[in-house]
Amino acid sequence: MDYKQCKYCKDTKEMIMFNKNISSKDGHQKYCKECNKVLNRQYKERKATAEGRVMMPYTTKEFSTITDEELLQHIRDFSNEFKRPPTTADFENCNSRYPHTKTYYRHFKYYKKENKLSSWNDILLLAGVTPLDSKDLWSAWQYLVEKSASILEGECLFQYCGFGLDFKPDIYVPSKHKVIDAATSNYCHKHKVKQYYKSVNQGASVEYWCLKKNNKTGLYLPNLKYVFADEIIERLSVLGNKELCNQIKNLYSIYKDFDDTYKKHRQDYVIQKLQEFHKINGRSPYTRDFLGNPAYPSSTTVTTLFGTFNNALRKAKLPINTESNMKFNEDIAITDLLTFIYKLGRLPSTKELVPPNTTYTEKVYYKYWGGIEGCLNALGINFLALKTYAKNNGINLRLNSILEFENLHNRWPNNKELSNKNNLPSPHWVYDHFGNLPNLIKHLENNF
Ligand SMILES: [Zn+2]
């Protein structure tokens, strides 16, 4: 065994009593661990005094001398007591009787590279505890949030698609214009911020219903509300909903059975929606009726849950449509188009001709009129005037963006800055309309 003399207390001690230091000759520091601690403390106190601060007296952290085996035993104890493996959130509470997850990572992940453990689940396995299958747990929680929200918030729409194609919140409460998202905990993540702004941009309020509360504060966003499992349980128990309360309490132990329950719950919701459609429209829906239709589940959801759309209709005890497509109705096509143009203030692009904007797609307008322009012509509407209007509108918008830039920076943008990123038109657009940037600037100086 190697020994070394400490340069401070002059004691000769075993090498492991010295902290590592890769830059020194023998790979260890010149002061022993104990002296190091004292010297560090003295240094911090001198620094604090110099900066006019007062340091709190030194206290030993509760788990500072814990061994690896003791750490693993805490994991076993937890899973024996709660009949489930701990999650990181369980061990993130500073006042808990369990060591902090950071202590685990320090012992098993960062400092002891030879362990090659890369995750919390690896540490659980080391303790001989089988990790949770978070995918199952997740769908179980989502299911419980959906059920609870239906009871506590009134009518809910699931996987609501009325906000646009890139945004489908888990739960939308139309009567309150509220978006509810099921989350594992109040963790901070860019993805959550994005989701929040997507809702807020639609004027909706946002709530994250969380399974776990960790002791971080969560995201600081205006009017964002975190609702935690214990609050949900409390509100449900006021309404006497004991069964659901117990399901939430026992979530971890019964999550394995939830996959089927969850599927059944979603199927029931779809069946209810199919029947609702039939009641309102006096016919069974076609897949296209559900394309981007915010009041109904998407046709993908229906086919994923039932295999085929017709299977879903059968389960809902509704007649199956024998004609492959909905009959063409000229009045609907025309009214849709005019309403949409009025709303946009310009001609729609072919991409925009989709439900719920219009009942029929571009293909249908093409088939009957040779396109939307043909349709407007047939109605005696001067589409050229509309088109010019739209075009000028587009040019003015872009010119305004350049004027705004000049206002802000007190100079004109250069070629390199021309980009959508800067909220400016592209060089290509400038070339198309003005030949080059100086021409465009000249035009602006003369006209504004
Ligand atoms: Zn020493």
UniProtKB/TrEMBL annotation:
Q: Which Pfam families match?
A: HNH_repeat (PF18780)
**Which InterPro entries has this protein been placed in?**
HNH_repeat
Name of protein: HNH endonuclease
**What is the native source organism of this protein?**
Clostridium gasigenes
